[in-house]
Amino acid sequence: MANAGLGYSEITDQYGSVQVRETLTCAHCNRIYPKPGTHDPVGFCHMCFKPVCLACGAKDKCDPFERKLDRLEARSKLRAAVG
Amino acid sequence: MIYAAQGSQTVTAKTALTLISTANGRSRLLEFIYSNVGAITVDSQYEVQLKRFTAAGTTTAVTPSPTDPSDPAATLFTAGSNASAEPTYTAGVIINDTGVNPRGVFRWTAYAPDAEVILAAVAASGLGFLVATLGGATQVIVDVKVRQ
Fold it and tell me: What is the pLDDT of residues A18-31, one digit of tens each?
């Protein structure tokens, strides 16, 4: 669980120095955002036990992104079937 | 299987690279790299927005190449570069918005599988890399790795 949603961004400048920052991917909306620092507000879903962005955290419900995709794909298949 | 695809853009508010889904399954974006080629005009950042779209627009077709040469061609997505007609982006949804100095390189990589950006299995929908501001860049290159 410690690595849930974890990614990293890396900026290499023209002199070759590299700055690395860890990122998180929201489990509810799939947005990539910088990993909050120790004293920053943190979004976390206690239902799916994954990091979420503050906007999704404020919604106070668990709606994982893959479940949203299930609904989206089902709607698309239905539209295709109806014509 | 992991596939690489590259796109480029020289114009503001145009898309450099699109990843276009098929209805066959979900592919996942593992990594993207932004860089600039050509002489830098001013020392000002360019901005790339990663967004979802519902209609693919018109682009120059890019064939995703498997990183392992023994892998078959990609079946879950196609790619396109240098949009001449923009995709229909989902309003208000920006997955990532990054300003990059044209003298530098930006790279994002997913550490964990649940950090990957998922493409819906809906035909003609997908992800686009929109060069929102060109800044001092002359030709923005977007290089991605996608897993299917």
Answer: 999 999 999 999 99
Residues 6 or more apart from A28 whose CB is under 8 A from it?
A45, A52, A53, A56, A59, A62, A63, A64, A65, A68
* Calculated CA dihedral for residues B63, B69, B75, B78, nearest 10 degrees: -20
Question: Could you tell me which chain A residue has the CA closest to the CA of B99?
Answer: A11
Domain ranges of chain A: 6-82
Q: Which of A6, A14, A32 is opposite residue B96, by nearest beta carbon?
A: A32
Report the largest interatomic distance among the alpha carbons of chain B, rounded to a whole angstrom: 44
Interface residue A27 vs chain B (CB under 8 A): yes
The verdict on B23 touching A (C-beta cutoff 8 Å) is yes
Cβ contact (<8 Å) for A13 and B120?
Answer: no
Within its chain, how far is the Cα of B21 from the centroid? 13
B76-132 pLDDT, tens digit each:
999 999 999 999 999 989 999 999 999 999 999 999 999 999 999 999 999 999 999
pTM: 0.94
Contact A12 B108 (CB under 8 A): no
Nearest in space to B115 (alpha carbons), one of A6, A39, A57: A6
Output the CA–CA distances (angstroms, integers) from residue B34 to A53, B39, B131, in the order listed. Answer: 24, 16, 10
